[in-house]
Amino acid sequence: MSSNPLQSIGRWSDDPQRRYAGLPSICSAHPVVIETVIRALRDHELPILIEATCNQVNQDGGYTGMTPTDFRDFVYDIAARVGVPAGRIVLGGDHLGPNPWKHLSAPEALDKARAMVEAYAAAGFAKLHLDCSMGCAGEPEALKDAEVAERASALAQWAEAALPDTASVRPVYVIGTEVPVPGGALAAHHKIEVTSPDAAEATLSTHQAAFARRGLEEAFGRVIAIVVQPGVEFGDDSVSAYDPIAAKKLRTLTDRHENIVFEAHSTDYQSGAALAGLVRDKFSILKVGPALTFGLREGLYGLDLIAEELAPTARKETLRAAMERIMLAAPDNWRKYYDGSQQEQVIKRHFSYSDRIRYYWQTPDARQAVAELHEVLGGRNIPFPLLSQYVGQIARHFDGHARIDADAVLRASVEEVLDVYIRASMKG
């Protein structure tokens, strides 16, 4: 059995043979995002880490309609199409636990969580984040550390037992949670509290003890990271930037546990300097998702405007108008997240950092609207001045002389975000 490529991440920063001290963790199921990421990282030494969440992908299909096996095959098919072997891909499962079923009693929810983690392990996911922090029906909203650790260790035991005999690597584990509702939850003037070192130490010690009670000492040796809150978050139009001084005390934890790094969630929209600071301070796993589809949406809406310039009568409806219609017809994915006046809600639906429009891109109507946009642009060479006018942030990807088509614009829109993470992961 091969060594898990993430097993030694705690020592990457001290390894002179490595150019990178951290890596981005890609949290998206959009095919254009995944293809762009795989293309962009194929010539780097980094593992290509692509993760699915418990709500997105589970044994019941999640909101994507994919089981862990389906998601694995979906990603591997894209990798094969662009000439990248499956061995370069590390698949991860995020927030694996009872969260999708917390409306049920604890035994019922944990039975569902067991089936989910077994499905992830059996499908070859090599990075598993165990998160049992949430209470189930009749329980407090947040559980005590000991109970969280006990439930997480049970999930680990079930995952270990579900590993197929043909597994090429054993999974590494991530524990803990210090994150808000996925997708961003920074309200105006809301102060983000950095995790205390004592709280992080307690998470580690209670999990270690719970694993040991189940005879899982070897599996606990594959715990590579703890999820903490470094003080970063984003809201509809605001970002709480990383402050290394505020996180200085928390950083000392990794001095005492040299094989452990921090996993930072909601790093979307941080500056390159802030991301580099996170990696330098051992927040080595940088989770990013909404920022990638935000960049993709910028590219799509830029192409939408370009298509109106090049062929103003070719479509009955612009992509922007189609997406507004689609979101109004099925508001569950945005309504409870976006408040304000009607006009403020319009702006948030399309342009909020939380990017809840991402839940709609793979619906049949949205796919049709995007297909119509591609049909209008077809094989057209997009004039550089039009690109500069409507998607100017990616102009550097084209030198003003290269042929520019719609697919290249979309890839560049995602790469513009990803490049910041790749540079931030580099040493020095």
Automatic annotation (TrEMBL):
UniProt GO MF annotations: tagatose-bisphosphate aldolase activity
UniProt-listed SUPFAM superfamilies: Aldolase
Gene3D superfamilies named among the record's database cross-references: Aldolase class I, putative tagatose 6-phosphate kinase domain like
Gene Ontology CC annotation, any one: plasma membrane
Keyword terms of this UniProt record: Lyase
GO biological process per UniProt: carbohydrate metabolic process; phosphoenolpyruvate-dependent sugar phosphotransferase system
UniProt pathway: Carbohydrate metabolism
Class in the EC hierarchy, top level: lyase
InterPro entries with a match to the protein in the record: Aldolase_TIM, GatZ/KbaZ-like, GatZ_KbaZ_carbometab
Keyword Electron transport among UniProt keywords: no
Protein's UniProt keywords contain Cell division: no
EC number: 4.1.2.40
Domain of life per record: Bacteria
Family matches, as PANTHER family: D-TAGATOSE-1,6-BISPHOSPHATE ALDOLASE SUBUNIT KBAZ, N-ACETYLGALACTOSAMINE PERMEASE II COMPONENT-RELATED
Record protein name field: D-tagatose-bisphosphate aldolase, class II, non-catalytic subunit
Organism, as annotated: Gluconobacter thailandicus
